Each structure stands twice: as C-alpha cells, then as structure tokens.
Amino acid sequence: MGYDRSGAVAHITKDSLSKSRWPVDNEPSSQFPIFTRANIGEVFPEVVKPFSWTLWGIPHSEPGWRQALVNLGAFDLEEFTPDRMEMLSVFGGYGYLNVSASRIFGARAPGLSPEAIDASFFGEQPDVPPYVEEIGHSSTKHEAQLADTITWVLSSPSMPELLETRGKLIKLREDRPNLSQLSNKELFQRCLNICEQHWEPLWIRHIMATYHSMIPSGVIAQICEAVGASDLCADILTVDGEVDSAFPAKRLWELGRLVRASERLSQYLGDDNNTTMDAIANDPNPDCQEFRFKFQIFIDEFGFRGQNEWEVASKCWELDPTAPLSALAIMARAEDSASPDARLASRRENKKSAIAEIQSKLKEDAELLGQFNAALSAAGTFFAARERTRTNCALLTHEMRMPMWELGARYAAEDVFGAPQDFSMLMVNEWMQLLDNSLNAKELVSDRKKESERLASLEPPFIIDSIVPPLSEWREREATSHSSTQIITGQPGCAGTYVGRAKVISDPSNPGDLQPQDVLVARHTDPSWTPLFSAVSAVVVDVGATISHAVIVARELGVPCVTSATNATSLIPDGALIEVNGSTGTVTILE
C-alpha cells in the first residue's frame, strides 16, 4: 500500500475489508523490518480508525518522520522506499513504530548505540530481537552530521519557538467558528484544511524532539554506569521544568482543594458519586458556582486532552469531562502533604544529592564532567520539549476533531451512523463520496465497527519482526490471571519507595474506588491518565521506558514509578499490598 499527499490511501477499496486485513493495514518494510507497539501504545492504544490514518497518518506522518530523520542528519531521503509505509505502520488494525531505523540512528550517532536506543524504546521488555549490523548502517557522513546535532542539543538552554507555536494553536482554538452554523461540506473542509496547513510541521518537530531527548538521557545513563552509580540515574533525570502533560494534574489539584474545603461540593464529589457537571452547575450554592466557573476555565485550557487523544474520534474532556471529575474527586480526599509541589520538593532534594555524588566522582575528569553537566541541562530542556510538541499535536487534533464530531452527530441523527464517532470508520476519500451522495455508508460503517470490535478483542504482538503473524495466531486478550510471582523486575521510572494497595485500572475515566494512598497499576498510560498520577501515591506500568509518558510525568509530579514491569496488570491482584521501588525498578507483592 502506498501513500499520497491528498489524504487518500492508494490501492484500497471497499472490498479490502476482510477477516485478515483492516482497511489501513500495510505490509512490513523489508529494509527496516522490526516494529514495536512501544511508545505508540501511549497515543494509539486502540484499533487505528480509518479516518485518522488517512487524514494525517499516511499522507503526512510517514513523510514527516522521514524528513525529521533527514533534518537530524541521520539519513538521506534516498534511503527510504518511496510510497511505502516504513516508519509508521498498521498491522491487524494496531499502530506500530519502526525500530530498525531508530537503531541505525543509534549506530550512526556518536556516543549512542543501537542498544541505547533499545533501552529508550523497550526498557526491560523480554524477547527483543538483538541488533544485527548490516552493510550501510555505519556512515561517516551521517556520523559527522549527527555530531553537529548532538553538540547543538547539549548546548541549547531553551526552546522558545515551541511556545510561539502553542500561541498559534491557541489562536486557532479561539477563532473556531460556531460549528453548528457550518454546512456538512464546510465542516469536512475545515478539518481537511487544518490538517493540511498545520499537521506535518508539528509532527516533524515532535519526531525531532523525541530523538533529541534520547541524547542527554543516554549520556547521563552511560556516565552513571561508567562510575558505578546506575541507581542514581532515575533521581538525576527528575524533571524540574514545566512539563505540559503534568499541567492538568496540577490544575485539578487546586480544584480539589476547593472541593475538600466545601461540605456542599464534597457531597457531589464524594465516594461512590457519579456526579455530572450539570448537577453542580445548577446548584446556586456559592461554592458550586465558584467551582463551575473554575472548572470551565480548566476545560477551556485542557479540553483537548483525553484518552487516545491523537485519535480524531476520541471523546476528549471537552466532549466528556468524566475522567478529570473522577480524578478530582480522588484528589479531594488527599492531604495537603500529597500535593504535586510537595512531592516534587522531596524529589528535588534527592536529585540535588545524586548530581553532587556523580560530579564528585568526575572531579578528576574535566571533560567527562563537562559532558555530564551539559547533558543534565539538556535533559530538562528536551524532555519538556518532547511533551510540548506532543501536546501541540494533540491541540491541533482537537481542532480537527470538533467539526467531525458535529458532522458525525448530524449523520447519526439521520440514522446513517449509529453514533457520532462512527464518522471515523470511513476513510477520507470515502467521506468525499458520502458528501457527494455517491456512497451508501450505513452497511460499510456497520461492517467496520464489527471488525474493529473483533480486532479489539485481540492482543497485538509487542514486536513485529519482518512478518506479521496471521490474526488467527494472535492471543485473545486475557482476563487477569494472577501468579505466585513475588518480585516483578521492571525499569526505574521515578525514584522513591512506597508500600500500598494496588489498584489495577484499565480506563482512566472509570477508576472505581481508587484512593489517594493506592498504587495505580496500568498497562500503559497517555496524557489522559495524568490526573490520576497526582491522585495516587505510586504508579506501575506494564510497558514503557526512559522517554515514555509515564516516566516523564511521574518525575514531574514526584510520584514513585516503575515502568516496563512486564505483565504487571496480570500478575498483581487488584487490592494486593505491594512495594514499589522506583529507584531499583522492582515491584514486590507483599500479600
């Protein structure tokens, strides 16, 4: 399958839907054969919808990723296969990232290695195919270009242009017209225009920031290992800067203090209450009215966030504020000492001590000490930059989302769709046919929804190496099956040790009876989970590594975290007493 820049997928017809192939599936690359669900599982945890993938995935993100690697100095465009999906792919309906090209990046970058790249992608995940060097992987030309990139990364104190981009995206939101007054074709065209004008530059910047962030973290990890202090790395990489993904949790904490101080609000947002904002907003009580006003400010600022937020069909917080309200209710039950600022203060002290210890060990090696100090500064800059570029993409996705939800609601009212989000089951070129009244969409959408549900019942392989196993060989998603395993070894996320009850959560909008003193255990997290990070005392995640969302946000909020704890959600019984050691990367089941 190829891609073109109009947003339509080449060589796909209605008849391509079958029990073995999702409409936007493609074949693996023979040149770059290894793919993974790592990292992409944070932003596309579910089956990829045909609309999003033909809107921005195929026509803009594949060529954008290639251009980012060229901009970094790691590749030439001629090294990629024209009209093939190689950096991003969809297998069995699930999104995958290419590992092979990133390993070549590591092989060509001075001071890095394919193994260092693997650590950033996989953490402690098992069954990772070993790197095998092939002809063409090494390149003196690209090594020199990447040396310049690394020098720039290690000497860049800030990224002000990302704030300028943020301002433009906020202006786009502020200038959003009254969507109810636009025609069907105008709604669709607004979505297309926003994507065509803005997506690819934002995406290129995000991919570059992702690779940039690997450089200082890799330098710090290697130096810590060289001086025999690998256990200090998690403390050192605690983020002191402002990380975008952590902002919602901090704002909700402030709102939670209002709830805690108000008897009336506590009645609405207490245990076992499924309160909607309508109930609070209609209450004339002054506390309720103040909360309504401040919560609306929160939604105006963060309404673009939500689970699976790069998926245009996802119900973000502006459409459904259930998730932040649920997290807020948990935060309201927490003591003031559990605030993000209080937690981060203790982490800063640990970081300061760890940095001083490494600097002391390097005092006789001025060159290595200089590299460590430079990497230390760059880590804060580029971890924050990666999250900011990710947020910028989510902001733009939201402005593409809102006209399509309005359009989907209209077709649902006409009984063409069963629900507004069904718009996502059609590809861009099929939408053009529907708007011209030349497509009978009802049966097609119904068939694809059934197929999507079938694929959602399967567990996608974590790694694809050259060949995609037939769907008949994919495992069904298993119910929780507890083990006698007492210690689960993962990877240090955020330093700190905590003992508490485990709560295994699959949906941040439905945290159940999660309490502030509990440990959140999840398969993976995206920014929609962030409020829960600040509502609990520790976090354990099945998959993730050094630059994963869970690690970066846990460090920013000062929450002990273990990531890459393989199968933790299956091995840890809900309610079990566990010890989370974010410094060693271990989780111990105590009872």
Key phrases:
disordered N terminus, 9% strand, 8-stranded mixed sheet, 591 residues, 20 helices
Architecture blueprint of SSEs:
Elements: E1 34-36, H1 40-43, H2 50-72, E2 88-91, E3 94-98, H3 100-108, H4 114-122, H5 140-153, H6 160-174, H7 184-226, H8 233-236, H9 247-261, H10 263-268, H11 277-281, H12 286-302, H13 322-331, H14 340-361, H15 366-413, H16 428-435, H17 441-456, E4 458-459, E5 463-465, E6 475-476, E7 487-489, E8 491-494, E9 497-504, E10 519-522, H18 530-535, E11 538-541, H19 549-557, E12 561-563, H20 568-571, E13 577-581, E14 586-589
Parallel strand pairs: 9-10, 10-11, 11-12
Antiparallel strand pairs: 1-3, 1-5, 2-3, 4-6, 7-14, 8-12, 9-13, 13-14
Helix pairs in contact: 2-7, 3-4, 6-15, 7-15, 9-12, 9-13
Short description:
With 591 residues, this protein is α+β, with helices and mostly antiparallel strands.
Distance between the termini: 51 Å
User: Helix tally?
Assistant: 20
| Helix share, percent | 40-55%
Assembly annotation = single chain
The dominant shape is globular
Within the largest sheet, what's the order of strands? Answer: 7-14-13-9-10-11-12-8
Given helix and strand content, the structural type is: alpha+beta
Average pLDDT number: 87
Q: Could you give the count of β-strands? A: 14
Q: What percentage of the residues does DSSP assign to strands (E)?
A: 5-15%
Low-confidence stretches: 1-19
Rg of Cα set: 24 Å
Report on the biggest sheet. 8 strands, mixed
